[in-house]
C-alpha cells in the first residue's frame, strides 16, 4: 500500500530532509483532508518509485553557485523513468538568499523545467514578496513567483514553519483541482 503523496528529496546537510519531515507532519495532521506522505531520500531510493503516486512533492537545495545538489545530479538522467504526464507535482527548495543572492533557488527552477518538459502539472507556486535576492532561475516566467516553496533556513529559519504550513494548505487544494 502506498500513501496519497510521494515526497522525494535530496539533501547534503539535512535541511531539505528536515523540511520533508515538517511537510509530512503538516500534510498529515494540520490541514483539512489530511494526506499520508511517504518520504524517499533519492540518495538511496530510486526516483522511479514516484510512478506509484499521482501526487508528488520534490525537495531540492541549490549548491555551489546555482548547481544541483549532489544526489539530484547523480540521478538527473533517471528522472525520465517516471511517467510525469499523469502527475501533479509540487516543488520546494532550500537556498541562501544572502549568501548566494544571484543564484537563489536556481536548482528548484532547473528541476521544475525538467519535469514540466516531461509533462508534469506543477502546482504550489510561491510569491517572491519578502525575499531579498538579485537573481534566480527558480522563478515563473512573469518573475512574480517562485516555481515552488522557497525555504531559507540560513536567514529565515523562524519563518519556515509558517511558510510550510501555508504552502501545504495551498498545495493540498491545488492537488485536488
Ligand atoms: C558551498 C555552498 C554553496 C551554496 N550555493 C547556493 C546557491 O548557489 N544558491 C542558493 O540558493 N543556496 C546555496 N547554498 C545554500 C544551501 O542551499 C543551503 O545551505 C541548504 O539549506 C542546503 O540544503 P541541504 O542541507 O538539504 O543540502 C549553498 C551552500 C553551501 C554550503
Can you characterise this structure?
- The structure is a single chain.
- This protein has one domain: Flavodoxin domain (Rossmann fold).
- The strands form 2 sheets. Strands 1, 2, 3, 4, 5, 6 and 9 form a 7-stranded mixed β-sheet that branches. Strands 7-8 form a two-stranded antiparallel ribbon.
- It starts with a strand and ends with a helix.
- It is globular and about 40 Å long.
- The chain has 4 helices and 9 strands; from the N terminus they run βαβββαβαββββα.
- With 177 residues, it is α/β, with parallel strands linked by helices.
Features of the shown structure:
single chain; alpha/beta; Rossmann fold; 4 helices; 31% helix; 21% strand; binds flavin mononucleotide
Unreliably modeled segments: none
Helix content: 25-40%
Gyration radius over CA: 15 Å
**What is the general shape?**
globular
Measured distance between first and last alpha carbons:
24 Å
Kindly state the mean pLDDT as a whole number?
A: 95
Counting DSSP E segments of at least 2 residues, the number of strands comes to: 9
Which small compounds were modeled alongside the protein? flavin mononucleotide
CATH first level: which class? Alpha Beta
CATH architecture verdict: 3-Layer(aba) Sandwich
Q: Helix count?
A: 4
> Secondary-structure element order, as H and E?
EHEEEHEHEEEEH
- CATH domain fold name: Rossmann fold
Major sheet details = 7 strands, mixed
Count of domain modules: 1
